Amino acid sequence: MDTIRLNIDRALNAVTREQVFAFESSVTKSLEALHSGSGAGSDFLGWLHLPSSITKDALEEIEDAAAALRARCEFVVVTGIGGSYLGTKAVADALNSSFDWLQRERYNPVLLYAGHNIGEDYLYELTGLLKGKSFGIIHISKSGTTTEPALAFRILKKQMEKAVGKKAARKRIIAVTDQARGALRTLAVQEGYRTFVIPDDIGGRFSVLTPAGLLPLAVAGVNIRQLVAGAVSMEKATGVETPFAENIAALYAATRNALYAAGKKIEILAGFHPKLHYIGEWWKQLYGESEGKEHKGIFPASVDFTTDLHSLGQWMQEGERTIFETVISVENPDHKVRVPADEADLDGLNYLAGKRVDEVNRMAELGTQLAHVDGGVPNIRITLPEVNARYIGQLLYFFEKACGISGYVLGVNPFDQPGVEAYKKNMFALLKKPGYEKDSAAISARL
Hints:
- By secondary structure, the chain is α/β, with parallel strands linked by helices.
- It has 18 helices and ten strands.
- Strands 1-10-9-7-8 form a five-stranded mixed beta sheet, with helices on both faces.
- α9 links the parallel β5 and β6 (194-197).
- α4 crosses α10 and α12 crosses α16.
- The longest helix is centred in the C-terminal third of the chain and has 22 residues, at 389-410.
- The radius of gyration is 23 Å and the shape is globular.
């Protein structure tokens, strides 16, 4: 079975291979710290061996719950924020038809998302769409009190209960939450919701292979067994027993840290396959929330090519040379579309007649890579043989493993997010949430 591949050759215009391999010792120590649990944040390492620990019975239970929702619902709303929805959105978009939601004859419910923003217009339009429709809810929250998803869930729950009654609503709501505590666990017990557990030792941005991701993905028709199998294969390939030069997670972590040391402060994840857009969004949270601490960390950004070559292309080619580029390249798209000939040839495209659209895209990819490298932008390439559940599973685990290693090399705890709490404290004080009254006057005075 083939696997995703890493190529750093075109990053060596900014750093030498020797400079990359100079990180071998710190990367190896970081990898060992992950596996021994001796590094910072070791109480959040449940993701490390998660793929290989998922049992057949666990997958069957998830598939059974998904089948129940599929049988009852036209739409299933996933209420969650950050890692509680981004992984699902990334995988579902990558593996399903770009226009699945528009097709009249669908085999799977349409996944919708709520609780990932505080948009009044968004919620108004969502609840309007769901009027008269059969829908379900997968509510994802360890605590049940995170503002954005809790707010959305309260509104959607009331709408569902008004439409079908509380008894029927119980069969259309599934809670993915803490095993024993928290507001959502309490509510689920009181209401009799079916529940799944997010393990205590797995943070949200590493949770895509827990029921937080696997349940909605199974609802959407994704082959979660192949997704997990891909992650299992990458778990084995990036273990401590794999030599540094053959361990693609270790080599990626070393290369990006060598580039960071050389003054490349921004990493741009670029994809030439439109369906991978939300992989970039998921990746930005994973690396931004894991590494951006103590005034350190590579800033993660993402672009969709060739689209963004017509907007950001100029800056990337000739702007400040503080960036490097990691490109996700897909060898074999699912479908074949050829460029037709045209007798008038007014658009001048007859030189492409008979060629596959993917050949045009591939030459754009190679041309962009060469231009950016010539322009002083180091280029790392990650190649997927094709976009399927197995390779996406490999990609997700590869990025997670490299992130843990890279954070330790950087000298931060990659598994906490203390900075996220700052806005919450101010928001709660401004809203006069109980317990925050003493801060309200001081914060209001600053406005």
